[in-house]
Amino acid sequence: MQADVREIVISSEEIQRRVREIGKQISNDYVYKNPLLVGVLKGVLFFMADLLRAIDIPVTVDFIAVSNYSAEARNQGIVHLAKDLETPLAGRHVIFIEDVIDTGLTLNYLLRNLRARQPASLEVCVLFNKPEHRLINIPLKYKGFDLPDRFVVGYGLDYQEKYRNLPYIGLLDARVLKEHTENEKGRGPK
Ligand code: IMP
Ligand code: MG
User: Does residue 23 register a pLDDT over 90?
Assistant: First the structure.
């Protein structure tokens, strides 16, 4: 698997250090607020697990899942909830946790959905920010890293459901992406 990676963009150590810093910030900002961390499966799995352990105040966690949707649907900002939250949000201090934000369409849709449930506050924490394709301006209260407009894998981010378990963020070898494009025309990574 490592042989498929052309270049490491952010090392595991850098990620761990930054996640610990964000955890400290959240712990300072949310004292006595019992924040609820909400994540979208599955990409956020690793970030959520490490972030939770870097927070040293009482905190709870819940997840939503969005169903597989086409690039066309995503471009129109259409997202289907495959699994909803179990926790009522009314009156809660909610932090929405995302692994990566690109156009912002997915996040925008989900934030609208959560805001309608009237939380006491709703902020966004994203680990990897790709600002170049942003279509919707979303204030990011906590941000890990800015990434260039390149397709990356690892630390939860997948390519065809693979490579999530790499502990770093890396670029895939052109050979891997090419094999895919040849097998399945036109459905390469964005
Ligand atoms: P957007 O912000 O609505 O464009 O969508 C962001 C989603 O696209 C993320 O939740 C990821 O699933 C996916 N994504 C964006 N960039 C990457 C990447 O570099 N690697 C893997 N998945 C990505
Ligand atoms: Mg995601």
Answer: yes
Q: CA 43: distance to chain centroid?
A: 6
Residue 186 is predicted with a pLDDT of 43
Which uninterrupted H or E stretch holds 28? Answer: helix 12-29
Q: Taking the complete model, does pTM exceed 0.85, yes or no? A: yes
Say if CB 20 and CB 142 are below 8 A apart.
no
102: annotated active-site residue? yes
Which parts of 18-175 are beta strand (E)? Answer: 36-41, 60-66, 81-83, 93-101, 121-129, 142-146, 152-153, 169-172
- How far, in Å, is the centroid of ligand 2 from the Cα of 183? 25
Domains of the chain: 12-150 (3.40.50.2020)
Q: Which residues line ligand 1 (CB under 6 A)?
A: 43, 74, 100-107, 130, 151-153, 157
Each residue's pLDDT tens digit, 59-74: 999 999 988 667 777 6
Mutate to test the pocket of ligand 1, among 69, 106, 180, 187 (most ligand atoms within 8 A of CB): 106
Atom number, ligand 1, closest to the C-alpha of residue 159: 21
pLDDT in tens, 149-158: 999 999 999 9
Which pLDDT value is given to residue 95?
98
**One of 4, 102, 146, 173 is an active-site residue; which one?**
102
